[in-house]
Specification:
Length: 146
């Protein structure tokens, strides 16, 4: 039963992500969770039978989905993407391109505000770690109920 749940989480994460062939353009305050594409997943699982990738994607999907609702009240967009290229457009119209393949990690997140450099974190982060990062980056109060 647990294995079925993990498979469903992984399928949901992959299906909810933008296509790997698209370049994602980000102009506004955004938290973008990036993951591997279906093709990348198939390639990894054909050579690695340990199941590590399934656990990583399951944890990643759980924590990403667990934090998404927190950003709505601050008008911060939340995206999930399997793309590997991201284009950031700053307030002064400057453009910066980021390619997630520069580092060999399967998942991570990017926080972007058009008035500052993006914050990029590779690997699986817990919901508390994501919210702490967002709180500092966007200068908002996500964790305290005051």
């Amino acid at each position: 039963m647990k294995k079925l749940f993990i498979v469903l989480l992984i399928i949901t994460a992959i299906l909810n992500c933008n296509s790997k062939n698209e370049s994602v353009t980000i102009k506004d305050r955004t938290v973008l969770f990036f993951s591997i594409s279906q093709d990348e997943y198939d390639k990894i699982t054909s050579s690695d039978k340990s199941g590590d990738i399934d656990e990583i994607l399951s944890n990643f999907s759980y924590f990403a989905n667990n934090t998404a609702e927190n950003f709505k009240k601050y008008n911060i967009n939340v995206l999930m993407s399997a793309s590997y290229r991201f284009k950031f457009i700053y307030a002064d119209k400057k453009v910066e391109i980021f390619d997630r393949r520069k580092k060999e990690d399967w998942v991570g997140f990017i926080m972007f505000d058009k008035n500052k450099k993006p914050k990029i974190k590779y690997g699986v982060s817990t919901d508390i770690e994501i919210l702490n990062s967002a709180q500092k980056y966007f200068n908002i109060n996500l964790l305290n109920n005051n």
